[in-house]
Amino acid sequence: MNTLLSGGIAVGKTNMDQFAAGLVGTRTPSSPCPVSPFDSRFISGGSSSGSAAAVGAGLLSFALGTDTAGSGRVPAGLCGCVGVKPTVGSVSTVGVVPACASLDCLTVFTASVADGVEVARIMRSAAAPPGTDVWRRQPSPAEPLPEAGFRFAVPSREHLDWDGPGGEALSSACAAAFEAAAARLTEAGGVRVEVDFAPLLAVAAMLYGTSFVAERYSGIRAFLERKAAANGGAPAAKPAAALEHQGQVVDDERLLPVTRHIIAGTAKFTAADVFDHQAQLAVLRARALDELSRADVLLVPTALTHWTVAEVAEEEAAPTPTWSRNAKLGRFTNFVNLLDMCGIAVPSGIVSYDAAALSEGASEAERRRAAHLAATGPTQVTLPFGVTLLSRAWRDDWLWGLAARMEAAAGLRCGPAGHGVTPFVSEQAQ
């Protein structure tokens, strides 16, 4: 983190996933990548990785980030701090390099809900110059909110896939921590109701699996096509040349291999696909909003598991990279902005396990993780567990109040110190 000191105030510039295309925090050309303040062998989450890691480590009072697909929530959960994701359009995005301009949202990482609310309200009140912020929206008419009692929903067991290389020990610890969070929400006056998350997760899959991903190319198009023009390439203004160049991004060495493959994938979509997918989203959105009408708030795990930096690198460093581990982190984040929701991630527990205590049927991935941890430090690992509260647009203030009650009930503060954990820093990270 680079900092400038002025009058006792530190202003820093933090690292992040390249072009905000990631939830892991390792997709950066600037080495080293940010890591978990609890255990440096584990990822910090992304894309706003450095911001969350700095707040989680106690280096800053607050840090800004963005959130298109979970970038302001996943790293908050993996770094043990608060991540406030306001309603899209409530905070100006003027000056932000776009990931998906129509969905981008400025976020804030803080040590507490109270601090997050204060910073978010200041951000919300700062108006952009007229005509400069095309995505800024006015609040919809205020909906009545429950004064006493509220309905909350959680994902069904089929969607709460805790499985990961941590094995049964980590899966059980995460499941127990999530149920404890649900119990705290009940104690706060909530009534648990059933909501089908299937249409929400179908919406989430559209963010990267359909032509919506082409907006990521659009956001940095001038940067990508400037190189082609300098090399005598075809003018990108011609449709055929533009489509050809989108596919050629896979060879653009300015981008990391995994980033190239994500953005180059946009070349397979046509303008007709965009309208087909908008129609598909409209149907799914109607189904999702019908389900959301049954609850005032959704309680979801901020992230389903913790990956090591080595595990993510194993997948994404291949000649043709894959990113199933990144995708799993976005299961309960990718649908949020597409469905026009607000959210806040809060610390909610700790999960501990010993990677060396392998079960008889341990997978090869579990064995590789145990060997890696044994070679780099202790196999006994303690990491943060976080939950996210989600609600419909413009319910931010009500949701923040509920998050403050959840925070108080959990009794946790920011980072390792606030969770009563002694952090581990490997020699490679020093």
Automatic annotation (TrEMBL):
It comes from the Eukaryota. GO terms for molecular function: catalytic activity. Residues 6-397 form the Amidase domain. Transmembrane segments: none annotated. Pfam families: Amidase (PF01425). This is Amidase domain-containing protein. It comes from Gonium pectorale.
